[in-house]
Amino acid sequence: MRGGIAALIQGDAANAAMLMFIPMTSFHTTPRFPRGFRCASRNVGLKPAAKDLTLFVSDVEASAAAVFTRNHFPGAPIILGRETIRGGKLKAIVANSKVSNVATGARGVENARRMAAAAAKELGTDPDRVLVSSTGVIGVQLPVEKVEAGIRGMTADLQHDPLVGAEGIMTTDTHPKALSASVGDATITWVAKGSGMIEPNMATMLSYIFTDAALDAATLDRMLRTAVARSFNMLSVDTDTSTSDTCAILANGLAGGVGEAEFQRVLTAGCVRMTEILGRDGEGAEHLLRVTVRGAKDDHEARVIAKSVLNSPLVKTMVHGADPNVGRLLMAVGKCFECSIRPASTDAWINGFQVVQGGERLTFDDAVVRTALMAEVVDLEIALGVGAAEATAYGCDLTKGYVDENASYYSS
Amino acid sequence: MRGGIAALIQGDAANAAMLMFIPMTSFHTTPRFPRGFRCASRNVGLKPAAKDLTLFVSDVEASAAAVFTRNHFPGAPIILGRETIRGGKLKAIVANSKVSNVATGARGVENARRMAAAAAKELGTDPDRVLVSSTGVIGVQLPVEKVEAGIRGMTADLQHDPLVGAEGIMTTDTHPKALSASVGDATITWVAKGSGMIEPNMATMLSYIFTDAALDAATLDRMLRTAVARSFNMLSVDTDTSTSDTCAILANGLAGGVGEAEFQRVLTAGCVRMTEILGRDGEGAEHLLRVTVRGAKDDHEARVIAKSVLNSPLVKTMVHGADPNVGRLLMAVGKCFECSIRPASTDAWINGFQVVQGGERLTFDDAVVRTALMAEVVDLEIALGVGAAEATAYGCDLTKGYVDENASYYSS
User: Fold this and answer.
1) Which single residue of A110, A245, A251, A357 has CA 20 to 30 Å from B393?
2) CB contact B163 to A (< 8 Å)
3) Which residue from A minimizes the CA distance to B405?
4) Any residues with CB less than 8 A from the CB of A298 and at least 6 apart, and which?
5) Hey, are the CB atoms on B102 and A330 less than 8 Å from each other?
6) What is the CATH architecture of A288-406?
7) What pLDDT sits at residue A405?
8) Nearest to A258, CA basis, from A182, A338, A328, A164
9) Closest chain A residue to the Cα of B327, Cα to Cα
10) pLDDT in tens, A317-365
11) Residue B405 has what pLDDT?
């Protein structure tokens, strides 16, 4: 065992050292908000009883940046969000689960606007200072009256625990997800959800980052894109890119200025850690799978090959069954037709144990590899011997639980 | 129900009409060989008891062409086969199951040569007239002495039923696969295997085509590539491209000349039909899934989008569970970032029942869509309204059976 989900979330420094591909960063044992941020969540009747609506609020207006899904069928909240974020300023985020408000046409966009307006009214701000998100089933109209009624009075519930907000946006997630870390006097807090339909491009399902550091919108945007490229954009649960992916960062400035390099380092580390938490909680997952490719021709090829191994159903089931069928690693590297691969210089390791050398499977004790594959965190490393580029991709094993959850997601 | 596996294999004309995307062709009720072809299969000790070695023989030397996997880690038989096929002439094919002889280095290639030599000796021909194939676990050396001993005396077993040969090359296939059809006075016979690690590129797992038509090697090569592009190269069980994919055609000329256009038509129809049979017998599959994209900008985009929908785990599990979660079709189209997609002109049907119009989910009776999804053959059609190109991709649903088979393939 290299950590486990509790260690992944709590993330003390010793554990961070074990997670060898991320910069060393200390996360707080219990996640907390930066100065001036609070949240509330409620059941407004979209789900039978569980919480289905969350409000995140900054006491003062915050600089903001966001990246959204590249899917050609963006949800109504994405269409509205691209408009909202142009202002570079946010006061709040309102997000619901259960219904994603995607493929709902003009009425869907109108409903997203009504949701922003309801939150703005409750908070005494303008609708264009409120970012809207929705997650859940595609192609169902949002019961917007329930959302409007539910938002009323939520300011009275606002509190300081980010996990409360994380709870209201869960779909198939098995636990609410939040992290926080310090950068000098400032704090960064990550809140996210996402378990299936996960191969983000530009951002993950829903991921919100809050900080009291003072940074302008343009700087936030640049830093967010840098962090996302190494983290959420290297995550895949099932190769399916959601129509609702959103990653937003709000900086309210209450802690004053910070060193940009240090802020970028911690921002990236937290995004990578949150990516690992999302991967470990992938639908049906029993393992966090990390694939690192070294010695690739360039960054693009390193990413393509890492994703190919990570997404191979045969590699994922090999990990799930702890079956030392390591030839599948070569198959998954070799099917990257357009990449530079030299069989004779290709080596591979499973949790540090070498299984392939020069393109040939080594003779080894199956029991050793089987044990390595039974760890909760499985690191697959491929050295290509072609160039100097490297990349790490994050995901999970493929289980019957994934099939179960997704064969009846709409109906249940 | 639109046919079922028995109908797919027997393929009478009425059934062919139901399978609407393939040219109308009558397949023989019981598959048979063209003049001058025979086969034999045996257990030579690679598997505990089931047949694991097959020999296909032409009485006279045949013109031949073949296409092989594009995986960067080709098996030893592929490395040798590329050399062999340059001669454009074959007398026999020898193929074993259980061990694929991939990632086995120089010793693997030497073992493949010994296998060709053993078959050539038994048949009184040259080793360069024998195509070798191996399929099974990657990274294990071939027990070549068992193969050599097993081949001895096989000429005495040669018979006229192609299903006998199909049986010796099965791995996770649930039944042996062979088809035949007439072209004028000539016959074409297809024999194939393949169930997992299936997203062929250049060919499917192992697929052999025999004909007594008189065609030279260059013509065969051109016709084979045309047929494969529309059939095996549009098949995916699990997005994993095998290291052993081989598709070969042998023409011994005993029936004399044929009309090339008619031969191409029947050749393609049989390859498409065999592709459907392989898809329906994908590991764990309970449905044959066909995705047709119309109105795409060009052929490349039509193929990319059809494959994206076909390979989406969320679409595959939707079909498996007969869950009318049709928004997933739009998600899978929309994640083709580089393709031309216009949400407002995008329509979709499930077995002829329209579920999406202009990028929005229609209001429909869930029970009707659920029933459509319960058919053994599920046709998903997407009309993009962008251009005039179209493509069909073939595959299957994703089930717990797939996870079961592949979590212990090496160990069991």
Assistant:
1) A245
2) no
3) A317
4) A387, A389
5) yes
6) Roll (3.10)
7) 84
8) A182
9) A138
10) 999 999 998 989 998 999 898 999 998 999 999 999 999 999 988 989 9
11) 84
Inter-chain residue contact A403 with B408, CB threshold 8 Å? no
**How many percent of chain B have pLDDT more than 70?**
92
**Is some CB atom of chain B closer than 8 A to the CB atom of A324?**
yes
Return the structure tokens found at A204. 């993950």
Q: Would you state the structure tokens that stand for residue B13, as one six-digit string?
A: 């004309």
Share of chain A above pLDDT 90, in %: 68
**Collapsed DSSP state (helix, strand, coil) of residue A378:** strand
- Predicted local confidence at residue B173, as pLDDT: 84
Which pair of structure tokens corresponds to residue A153?
């009075």
Tokens 């409120």 correspond to A130
Judged by CB atoms closer than 8 Å, whether chains meet at B239 and A105 is answered as: no
- Which of B335, B406, B410 has the CB atom closest to A240's CB atom? B335
Tell me the C-alpha distance between B120 and B128, whole Å: 8
| Chain B partners within 8 Å of A400 (Cβ) | 400, 403-404
CB contact under 8 A, B102 and A240: no
pLDDT digits (tens, 9 = 90+) for B165-217: 999 998 888 889 999 999 999 999 999 888 777 766 645 578 899 999 999 99
The predicted-structure confidence for A146-170, as pLDDT tens digits, reads as follows 999 999 999 999 999 999 999 999 8
Which stretches does DSSP call E strand in B196-259? 206-213, 246-256
Q: Is the pLDDT of residue B393 over 90?
A: yes
Starting at the edge strand that comes first in sequence, how are the strands of the sheet with A347-350 ordered?
A360-361, A353-357, A347-350, A377-383, A288-296, A389-396
Q: Which residues in chain A are closer than 8 Å to B104, comparing Cβ atoms?
A: 360-361
- Tokens linked to A400: 């019957």
B-contacting residues of A 293-312, CB under 8 Å? 311-312
User: Which of B360, B365, B382 to mutate: most A Cβ within 10 Å?
Assistant: B360
Pairing of β B177-183 and β B130-134: unpaired
A71 touches B at CB < 8 Å: yes
| Closest Cβ opposite residue B325 in set A137, A339, A359 | A137
Number of Cβ within a 10 Å radius of residue A290: 25
State the catalytic residues of A: 204
Interface mutation target, options A69, A109, A138, A350, chain B, most CBs of B under 10 Å: A138
Same CATH fold assignment for domains A4-280 and A288-406: no
Q: How large is the greatest C-alpha to C-alpha distance in chain A, in angstroms?
A: 69
Token code pair at residue A34: 């930066």
Domain positions in chain A are: 4-280, 288-406
Average of per-residue pLDDT values in chain A: 88
The pLDDT-based confidence of A202 (bands split at 50, 70, 90) is very low
Q: Annotated active-site positions of B, please?
A: 204
Residues in A touching B366 (Cβ below 8 Å): 411
Q: Which of B52-61, B156-165, B195-204, B371-380 is least confident? A: B195-204
| A360 shares contact with chain B (CB less than 8 Å) | yes
Helical residues (DSSP H) of B231-282, grouped into ranges: 260-280
Give me the pLDDT at residue A23, please: 46
Distance CA(A113)–CA(B239), nearest Å, equals: 40
Domain boundaries B4-280, CATH class? alpha beta
